[in-house]
Design a protein that fits this description.
Residues 57-124 form the DUF374 domain. By secondary structure, the chain is an alpha/beta fold. It has six helices and nine strands, in the order αββαβαβαβαββββα. The chain has helices at 2-21, 52-57, 71-81, 97-108, 130-138, 186-215, and strands spanning 25-29, 43-45, 64-67, 86-89, 113-115, 142-149, 152-154, 162-164, 169-174.
């Protein structure tokens, strides 16, 4: 029964995303970067509550996404598989040796990686050290990524998940690559974790302002 439920959610969810996104004016900053995602090998980090637009923009590019093995992660995995993403199940920290190895293999095949650094359970807008660890192990830079929405609904979930309203505007904003050195002390790891978090928060505030201005 569970398998059937996951299957149906995957089909329905992927089509709902496609239909909703067709009504939204999606911009990117820097302009033209949406088309470069597939060939820019990096770890793209975006907040858990803002995954809907990236799921549409990154469709059919075979981007590899790290999804937790929690049951909630299975729903997300079923949806994004049908949008043309690769899915790697596991954690970048706890028991994540197999997941990291799978990612390294995919990187060597030429695929970019995406991760929600505050997922799967939060706290909201707090970068977990797993993304720093992943960058160290894969030697890929982190590209902070965020989404600004001019109008949206907010769900009563831990992340206050945002669903853009039809006929609104969205902006995908990409930051400069952050290169994480391979050997770091605990203090240095925390420095980079806070740096990525700070940049992502600032970008999200700026992206929301830009999206509202474009809607005006």
């Amino acid at each position: 029964m569970k398998k059937i439920k996951f299957f149906l959610v995957g089909i329905l969810g992927s089509w709902l995303i496609r239909i909703l996104a067709l009504t939204i004016r999606i911009h990117d900053d820097p302009k033209g970067f949406n088309e470069k995602i597939q060939t820019t090998h990096a770890i793209y980090t975006f907040w858990h509550c803002l995954m809907l637009i990236p799921a549409y923009v990154g469709r059919n590019k075979n981007i590899q996404v790290l999804i937790s093995q929690h049951s909630d992660g299975e729903f997300i995995a079923q949806v994004i598989k049908r949008l043309g993403f690769g899915v790697i199940r596991g954690s970048s920290t706890r028991g994540g040796v197999r997941a990291v190895k799978a990612m390294v293999d995919k990187i060597q095949e030429g695929h970019p990686i995406a991760i929600t650094p505050d997922g799967p359970r939060g706290p909201r807008f707090v970068v977990q050290p797993g993304s720093i660890y992943l960058s160290q192990k894969t030697r890929l830079p982190i590209v902070p990524t965020t989404v600004g929405l001019s109008r949206y609904w907010k769900l009563p979930s831990w992340d206050k998940f945002r669903i853009p309203k039809p006929f609104s505007r969205a902006i995908m904003m990409y930051g400069d690559p952050i290169y994480i050195p391979p050997n770091l002390s605990e203090e240095e790891t925390e420095h980079y974790r806070l740096l990525v978090e700070k940049i992502m928060k600032e970008m999200t505030e700026r992206a929301d302002i830009v999206a509202r201005q474009k809607n005006g």
